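dumping the sequnces here before i forget
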Amino acid sequence: MTGVIMQAYPPGCGPSTPAELVALLRRPLGELLPGTRKASALDAVVLLDPEDALSDDAMEIVCDYTQALFDSEDPATAWLPRWAWQRAEQIEQELFQTLIQAGDAAVYTASRRFLIEHPAGDTRELAEARGRSGARQVARYIEIPPDRVFRFAPGADGQCWWSCPVCKWPMQVRGRRVECTYRPHTARFLVGDTGVGSLTAPSLVKVSATRLRLLESHPVVSAVCVDPAVWRFVVVPGVPELDLERLLHSHIPEVGVALYPIKDTFDLLVTAPDGRTWSVDVKDHADPQRVIDDPPSADHVVVPTYRKGQLHQLKRALSGKSVWTIRQFLNEVSDHVARGGSA
Ligand SMILES: [Zn+2]
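..and the predicted 3d for all of it:
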């Protein structure tokens, strides 16, 4: 690795030993490469966090590029968590194959929606909710991973977990810090003072500035959650897809919204009362280049509000497609409906 970086620099510049390279891994990525290149969205990413573990930001990039970076023989697979080097495509293929085989489009949509809305919970409650929803069980649920469990008293009853207010998957617990490891969810909390040593589960204090619902703790006994890979590659991208569906329903009730109308071809089909339709793909990638390299099939590409910095680059690269934030897309549809569908 040091050799690769040294080659990019003129002789005598840049890191010349592995130790110097490692020191740079704790600095923004932009400092690691010579200044003559084009600026990139990734320049600010720091690879190693203060505990010298792979940072959450770095993990996001890994998730965007797993297929491009690794095959299963790569030595990097020894230090990355198993789910991170499993190819996103492989996970999606396995899961989506099960989904597609699950039945007609209605069962497909119900099963995929169920995973996104119920990525974790009490085993019995999940089974009951699945029964009511018409979804099939298409992914395995596992015990709450140990790094997502808080111990406030001895014994199995002295363990609890908290779901992220955005994606509902268990948040990571590091000492008293409780955070969703998908950074854009900005869910950051601290375990409240009364918790430690108490026999009842502690409550959380919000640290991030974002408006977030404070959720109650859940007992670890009898709780399960989807596999980290299913969370990262199906639940996380699914959250803004369902958000957009919900916002369209509540803001513009006149329009029809079909979620995953042709299984996994595109995400949403929006139909105005005059028959005008919009096919929509919601794209949530840390690096917009990932969307450009694998352009979506829908005519309208919608990015979550926290990705609005990508609009310019996506619009330029995806000619022939319209690119919006969720808010802008809502305005576009609502303006069309308000004009009586005349445009
Ligand atoms: Zn989350």
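The chain has three domains: 2-79, 145-219, 230-338.
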